[in-house]
Structure formats: C-alpha cells, structure tokens
Amino acid sequence: MKCHLSKIMGEKRLKISDVARDTGVNRGTVTRLYNETATRVELEVIDKLCEYLNVEVGELFERNIES
Q: The pTM is what?
C-alpha cells in the first residue's frame, strides 16, 4: 500500500502537529503514515483523516500491484 498523506498535506500546507491536533489522531500514527512506515491503521483513523483532508480513501491510499 502506498500512502499519499505527505503529498496531500504538502498541497494543503499542513504540518503533522496540525493534523494530529485537529483530528485527535495520535501524532505517532500520523508520522508513520506520513513517512509510509505504518504497518496497520485503524479504520476510524482512516475515516478521520479522509474527513479532515476532504479526500476519499482511494486518494489517501493506493494499492501497489506488482507483476
């Protein structure tokens, strides 16, 4: 899975601390998603981030299809 959080946050000029504070999502979780090091994410977190960033799940995450 590829996470586009860093790209989306860059476009909206948001900092990790802003997203964590405004969504209530743990800063460490936001950091791991931002750096694409997260191995699992709660559905509630994905929902909060999508709502906050005004994006769909498919815009936030992309499935890598390897041949």
A: 0.90
